[in-house]
Specification:
By secondary structure, this protein is mainly beta. It is built from three helices and 16 strands.
């Protein structure tokens, strides 16, 4: 059985009536055998959005084995501590309790069908999770913010040129992309894709 990807929370970046910004990352669940990964559990209006969505899949925070962060901006990392037994994985490291361990970097496998690729651009330390599923290759990334593949010019990019190279790298393998703050889409036709439940 191949790995699965379910979106737990579809993210957004919106202006409030008060003129502030409301931000949710897109938070996803990846399963591959005994591997249970939550991707980008960042700032949310209510952390129960994650726990309730996990419960809908028969899981609790205690069942999560790994948390993957695409980069270290607070809107994608705020709720990493919700998962007491999880190892945290980023572009080149594994954080296991008090241990700060390195991993193989580009191509590092978390499971048979789940691997990490380096995708700098939005931030220097950006990485994406590549998941082989029955629906094709799903890439969870912040190379794009939204499902319409915008913004083309990332206003917060560490390096736009590096970002363009990372986008090309992703598009070479992805059948479906899960962006940083939007719904999954198929790059071939920029069509939104439903992956699991949405809190």
């Amino acid at each position: 059985m191949m790995a699965t990807v379910d979106v737990l929370v579809t993210g957004h970046v919106e202006s409030t009536q008060a003129g502030d910004s409301s931000v949710h990352p897109t938070v996803s669940l990846v399963r591959d055998g005994d591997l249970v990964v939550v991707v980008d559990p960042g700032i949310l209006s209510d952390p129960a959005l994650i726990t309730d969505a996990l419960a809908g899949h028969g899981l609790s925070a205690d069942d999560v084995t790994h948390v993957f962060v695409t980069h270290h901006h607070i809107d994608h990392t705020r709720n990493v501590g919700m998962f007491p037994h999880a190892k945290v994985v980023d572009v080149d490291s594994v954080y296991d309790g008090s241990l700060w361990l390195s991993h193989d970097g580009d191509g590092h496998h978390l499971g048979d069908d789940v691997s990490v690729i380096e995708t700098p651009g939005h931030a220097q330390e950006c990485a994406a999770l590549v998941v082989e599923t029955d629906e094709g290759t799903v890439v969870l990334t912040h190379a794009w913010w939204f499902a319409d593949m915008t913004p083309v010019m990332d206003p917060l990019a560490w390096d736009q040129t590096a970002l363009e190279r990372s986008r090309d790298k992703i598009l070479a393998v992805a059948d479906i992309v899960v962006p940083g703050h939007g719904a999954p889409f198929r790059p071939a036709d920029v069509t939104a894709v439903a992956l699991g439940g949405d809190a």
